[in-house]
Amino acid sequence: MKHAPFADRSPGSIALVGAGPGARDLLTLRAVARLAAADVVFYDRLVDPEVLSLAPQAEHVFVGKEVGAHSWPQDRINAVIVAAALQGRRVVRLKSGDPSIFGRACEELDAARSVGIAVEIVPGITAASAAAAALGRPLTERGATDRLVIATATCKPGDPDPELAALLTPGTTLALYMAMHRLPLLVAQMLAAGHDPALAVEVVGSASTSREAVLRCTLANLVARVAEAVLGNPAILLIRHPKAAAVATRRAIALVV
Ligand code: SAH
C-alpha cells in the first residue's frame, strides 16, 4: 500500500524531524518541508536558532534544558506534543542530528501511536557525520577501519556501565556521543583494557556551526588536551583503532618475545 506523503494527510500529526548538527543548510529537503508546513515546533537545547527560522509561521516551544534549570521530563514532552496533535495541529518535534540516534524517539513514537496520531521520522545528519566533515576525513577507511560503532557514554540512570573499551576492536572507528563529562574514567577504562595510549583520538565541538572546533590528540593525552582546549558543548569523540595498528602491535610483541 502506498502512503500519502505525511504533509498531505489530514491535520493532527507529528513529525520527529532531524535538525542536523546545527548548520541551517544541513537539513534534508523533507525536514525543510515539514518545518514550512508546521503549526507548532517543539525544540530542545541543541537545535540551532538558524534552523528554527525555517518555520517562521509556526509557534516555537522550547522543551529543553536551560542552563541551571531542570529539563522537561520526557513524559511531559510526550504529553504536550500529543495534546497539540490532538487539537488538529501539525506538530514538528525537532531533534538535533538524526532523531533516531540517542534522541529518545521511542517514547514519542509510542505516545503518538497509543492515541492513533500519525507519526513519522524524518532522518537527519548525525553528529558523527558532521564531525567527519569538520575533520576532512571519512569515518571509515577501506582496509583500516571497516567498522563504525556509534555509542553513547551516558546511558539511562541505573543502567550498567556501557563497557566502551570492549567496542574498540581492531578495524573500528568508535564515535562517542555524550562522553565529554566522563573523559578521565573513559581513558582509564580504555588503558586498563589494554588499548594503546598512542591511539588517535579526535574531538569535534559544535560541528558544522560557526563555533566548530577540532582537537587531534591521543588516548594518553586526551584529558589534558581537552582541559586546555576551547571546545565547548556539544562535542563528539572519534577514536580510531585501525587494523594496521593491531598488526604492528602484534609484530612488536612477537619481536619482544
Ligand atoms: N541525535 C543526535 C545526538 C543527540 S545526543 C545526533 O544524531 O547527532 C547529544 C550528543 O550529540 C552531544 O552530547 C554530542 O556528543 C553530540 N552532538 C550533537 N550535536 C553535535 C555537534 N554539532 N557537534 C559535535 N557533537 C554533537
TrEMBL record:
<dbReference type="InterPro" id="IPR000878">
    <property type="entry name" value="4pyrrol_Mease"/>
</dbReference>
<protein>
    <recommendedName>
        <fullName>uroporphyrinogen-III C-methyltransferase</fullName>
        <ecNumber>2.1.1.107</ecNumber>
    </recommendedName>
</protein>
<dbReference type="InterPro" id="IPR006366">
    <property type="entry name" value="CobA/CysG_C"/>
</dbReference>
<dbReference type="InterPro" id="IPR050161">
    <property type="entry name" value="Siro_Cobalamin_biosynth"/>
</dbReference>
<keyword id="KW-0627">Porphyrin biosynthesis</keyword>
<comment type="pathway">
    <text>Porphyrin-containing compound metabolism; siroheme biosynthesis; precorrin-2 from uroporphyrinogen III: step 1/1.</text>
</comment>
<feature type="domain" description="Tetrapyrrole methylase">
    <location>
        <begin position="14"/>
        <end position="222"/>
    </location>
</feature>
<dbReference type="InterPro" id="IPR035996">
    <property type="entry name" value="4pyrrol_Methylase_sf"/>
</dbReference>
<dbReference type="InterPro" id="IPR014777">
    <property type="entry name" value="4pyrrole_Mease_sub1"/>
</dbReference>
<dbReference type="InterPro" id="IPR014776">
    <property type="entry name" value="4pyrrole_Mease_sub2"/>
</dbReference>
<dbReference type="GO" id="GO:0019354">
    <property type="term" value="P:siroheme biosynthetic process"/>
</dbReference>
<keyword id="KW-0808">Transferase</keyword>
<dbReference type="InterPro" id="IPR003043">
    <property type="entry name" value="Uropor_MeTrfase_CS"/>
</dbReference>
<keyword id="KW-0949">S-adenosyl-L-methionine</keyword>
<keyword id="KW-0489">Methyltransferase</keyword>
<dbReference type="Pfam" id="PF00590">
    <property type="entry name" value="TP_methylase"/>
</dbReference>
<dbReference type="GO" id="GO:0032259">
    <property type="term" value="P:methylation"/>
</dbReference>
<dbReference type="GO" id="GO:0004851">
    <property type="term" value="F:uroporphyrin-III C-methyltransferase activity"/>
</dbReference>
<comment type="similarity">
    <text>Belongs to the precorrin methyltransferase family.</text>
</comment>
